[in-house]
Structure of Hydroxyacid dehydrogenase:
Amino acid sequence: MPRRPVAVFAIAPWAFGGVFPVDLLTRLRQLVDIDPATTFTSFDGPAAAAALAEAEILLSGWGCPRIDAGVLAAAPRLRALVHAAGTVKARLDPVVFDRGLVVSSAAEANAVPVADYTIAMLVLGAKQVFGRAARYAAAVEGTPRDWLSGEGTGLHHCTVGVIGASRVGRLVLRRLRGFDVEVLLHDPYVSAAEAAHLGAELVGMDDLCRRGDLVTVHAPALPETRHMLDARRLDLLPEGAVVINTARGSLIDTEALTRSCASGRISAVLDVTDPEPLPPGHPLLALPNVLVTPHLAGAQGRELRRLGEFAVAEVGRFLSGAPLVGRVEPEQLPYIA
Ligand SMILES: NC(=O)c1ccc[n+]([C@@H]2O[C@H](COP(=O)([O-])OP(=O)(O)OC[C@H]3O[C@@H](n4cnc5c(N)ncnc54)[C@H](O)[C@@H]3O)[C@@H](O)[C@H]2O)c1
């Protein structure tokens, strides 16, 4: 067998087995020389030093330590970092790019379950399922049980506002083509022509809020996206609107959202919050028209395998000189998640 490049795992043990089940490890080991029994969550100590000294490819994931100048100095042969999880940028010192390392992330694969979750919540949110189910459960004998009072609900011919044609946002846009809805998109990095190609009308944030029966947030957490849904914009939303946030809690002003939802004017589905987690007893956790889930939209359980499949395929592309699908370039860092 020809010499295989040496690779090293840096991924938390809790995620390892799900991301790299045995059959994927077998496939990976046909490409690289890697010890499947060793994964590092710290690069301190002699075992990590010995592994880094030989490593040509680092297969990272959740729990990977930050890759800084010290790590690079200990890894003189390192050529590529393949991240088998979502966002990688917080783990990268810019020196990684100065050294010419090829960086790839499986964010594309992690986006799939987030888009699926979003579509489910759009359908349920449009039907006001959460508030209506709560009223149904709380009804005492003899009171109307709400099963015919669906006025103003449902996805049919309503307007969906998508904030961010990110990897998740684009998958949501693609899935929305299967529904008879009008789609608005806000994204400063997308032209009107590209938005039309994605099946959406490009609009400003205020316009999106004024017209969106359902608004779904998919932009990255950046200084300029903090509180992009603030009190003023939440007030622009039509009565009965539903806000879905699977992106990051900081994109919405939590206090303003709490006030708007508590008034009953709008509803929300929040997979991410600010702060996260919300403190016990927070009003958002008790409102019948708000569903808060514990940051579970991204890959979990069976979905983890998709990250490993992406990473193994990416290693194959890297070794054969093919373009990487998840390549992260330094100039993208200011506007990606
Ligand atoms: N809930 C979860 O489990 C989960 C999982 C994965 C990702 N996320 C979050 O989902 C969001 C999308 O992730 P991704 O990997 O698809 O992001 P991404 O890196 O693909 O997003 C980058 C894109 O966002 C768009 N964008 C940048 N600035 C914007 C702005 N000011 N307004 C609107 N759009 C803007 C641009 O099109 C840019 O190319 C992020 O906030 C990410 O943290 C959450």
Observations:
- The first helix runs from residue 13 to 19.
- DSSP finds 14 helices and eleven strands in the chain.
